[in-house]
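Narrative of activities, Objective 1.

The group set out to show that a structural description can be obtained from nothing but a protein's sequence at a throughput compatible with the screening campaign. Below is one input-output pair from the validation batch, recorded exactly as produced.
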Amino acid sequence: MRAIDALAAAAARIGGDTPRLDAEVLLAHQLGCTRGELLLNQDRSIDAEAFEKLIIRRVTGEPIAHITAEREFWSLSLKVTPDVLIPRPDSETLIDVALRLCAPPPRRILDLGTGSGALLLAALTEWPEATGLGIDLSPAALAVAQDNAQRLGLGQRAAFQPGNWGQGLDQGFDLVLSNPPYIAGTETLSSEVRDHEPAMALFAGADGLDDYRRILPQLPGLLNPGALAVLEIGHTQGPALLTMAAAHGLAGSLHPDLAGRDRCIALRVAPFQPPA
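Output recorded for this entry:
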């Protein structure tokens, strides 16, 4: 079967928002080439049986990133398994905001709930003099993050250890990044997300704010003087989190993603205000 025919047939079966793109990514993965190389040579013959196995997995709802075992984030190719949240383009907003607001360049970076290591490793590529620490409750996730660091040549600058957010850490950081769970327990998710990604990386109590309630009180003790924390948020949670942050002595600002929705909150320890 020719690639061009296989792609058309696969896209018709996959459906959803990006059926043709999904088919192209899967076929390029099977062929061991880039999507661009595939599109330049769509008349090549392919192993239709092998491609069919990948299409069946996609049609039954398995995420593309789990089928290919990788996902690009901030131009980095990251290993992805069902043990970690699949990195999303929206999360790149955190790196963009950190680049704009973090001055001078950070020397020590902390990633709370590191998962695949996406945020920490992206930050380390932007600040080549920095070192970082990734914390996660899941040993399986830490193994994925460590593997990604080694493959990207960042193993000497990135360390990973188990932990419950910042609890027990006795060092300061110039930049803290985190994409904690922020989905309310009653919220409806697609079966692709609900059935294939780790629930502990998605859900955070009845209002989706439980993990912020744990993280925000820890931040003042983790941030060096003048340091910055950037946390991903649900697009409706900004006002509540600004209020919560202020109660812990943190001054915050909200920042949108490319769709214009609030995507992260940037925090610093607020200047001391003497009593009137």
